[in-house]
Amino acid sequence: MSDPSAPALQLTGLRKHFGDKIAVNDLSLTVPTGSFYGLVGPNGAGKTTTLSMATGLLRPDAGQSLVHGIDLWREPLKAKAQIGNLSDGVKLFDRLTGEQLVTYNGLLFGLERAEVAERVADLLKLLDLEQAAGTLVVDYSAGMTKKIALACALVHAPRLLVLDEPFESVDPVSAANIRDILTGYVQNGGTVIVSSHVMDLVQRMCDHVAVVAHGTVLVAGTVDEVRGDSTLEDRFVELVGGRTHAEGPEWLRRS
Ligand SMILES: Nc1ncnc2c1ncn2[C@@H]1O[C@H](COP(=O)(O)OP(=O)(O)OP(=O)(O)O)[C@@H](O)[C@H]1O
């Protein structure tokens, strides 16, 4: 049974190494139910690795992921039924059309065919993919692929959405539509955790944020707590460092 008082996602002591490289190092994070949670961090910080372990795509070396109180690695089917996952870099069945792919995902989650058809039509319309419904996903642009993957994540009406870089390559109108969908989803009791490099977007869209670097959480809390008196972007740079203030190499200067 899922525990109604449990956080939507509770990560405890997650750890993963690839050879000598420690990608995620004893990472713990609590995502409250009903929150819109941003996960930010520099390239290679361990965000994708963390989200992959949290959602059952990658087995951790150590640690636990509880989804609404259900231990994901002990009861994967039950936990995964609660999650809508848009992961970075995982291959889709791209020899299906967009419509077939979302339908297939809905059927995999045990929905009735008629219900799936209705939801697929709604999602294709919401994401402005109606014209491309009959096109093979392999022929989609990067942004269209992102949107069809998001439709797949939404079709079974999960309680928790885990979205790795959902806005990457997406045009501004579609991005605004996606933001509206996600905001409405949170207002109606859902929980979203989203990784992004766009600080301004996270500051405007999310109510909570965690800054990850070197595989661990540097700071986490409400967006206002984390940013204090500065912008999230300034706070991020302050926490993570790495600004060089260099003009670039000599050979790159035109004058
Ligand atoms: N399958 C893998 N094999 C080897 N190393 C990996 C693998 N996956 C990730 N890594 C390494 O683990 C570290 C964390 O990578 P990860 O993709 O989780 O970072 P990220 O925060 O999502 O980065 P980005 O913002 O650039 O997408 C990096 O140093 C990366 O090179």
From TrEMBL:
It is found in: Cell membrane. It comes from the Bacteria. This is ABC transporter ATP-binding protein. Gene3D superfamilies: P-loop containing nucleotide triphosphate hydrolases (3.40.50.300). CDD domains: ABC_DR_subfamily_A. GO terms for molecular function: ATP binding. Pfam families: ABC_tran (PF00005). SMART domains: AAA. Its main location: membrane. It comes from Herbiconiux gentiana. Keywords: Antibiotic resistance, ATP-binding, Nucleotide-binding, Transport. Residues 9-239 form the ABC transporter domain. It is a peripheral membrane protein. InterPro entries: AAA+_ATPase, ABC_transporter-like_ATP-bd, ABC_transporter_ATP-binding, P-loop_NTPase.
